[in-house]
């Protein structure tokens, strides 16, 4: 299943437009906040596909029957750009467990690169619903490597992947390697440069959040 927010009219498009805007994105705090707000939108939409059970809640005047989540997901983020979006997901899934993974591109010759993972902190994911968030899904290689590592270590019940902007190539790569994953995307851009930058995209999300890195 693939859900793309930009294909429908909602406030999510306003947050996405500000993330892309070359002048507005210079406000680092607003850039992080827009990623956080989109994380909240992702959380709300994903929650509609989860399992619920009826419970009774005692009010001052009686008893109300409500449908509540039958289980909490585990929120997984890829450091460092994923942190603001992860916060947005946590704002709504406020009882969820969290996991953190460091995955980055290490440059090689001829504009090629390899994906390196150097940090892996996660609770037991056996029989759990997990939501992996990363603002940008460019080639999709980092996402596939991270998710396959999680699936190799644990018997995961359900996998959701959330990205603000994806390339068409990245979506195809994830779909071919993770066919059972549910993809939640803010927008899908067609072009990917030789250096694996999404066009029009928005630039380097990590740098825009936290400053340029060496």
UniProtKB/TrEMBL annotation:
Keyword Cell division found: no
Annotated EC: 2.4.2.9
Domain named Phosphoribosyltransferase: residues: 9-211
Gene Ontology terms, MF aspect: uracil phosphoribosyltransferase activity
Enzyme class: transferase
Keywords: Glycosyltransferase, Transferase
Superkingdom as given in the UniProt entry: Bacteria
Protein name per the record: Uracil phosphoribosyltransferase
Record organism: Solitalea agri
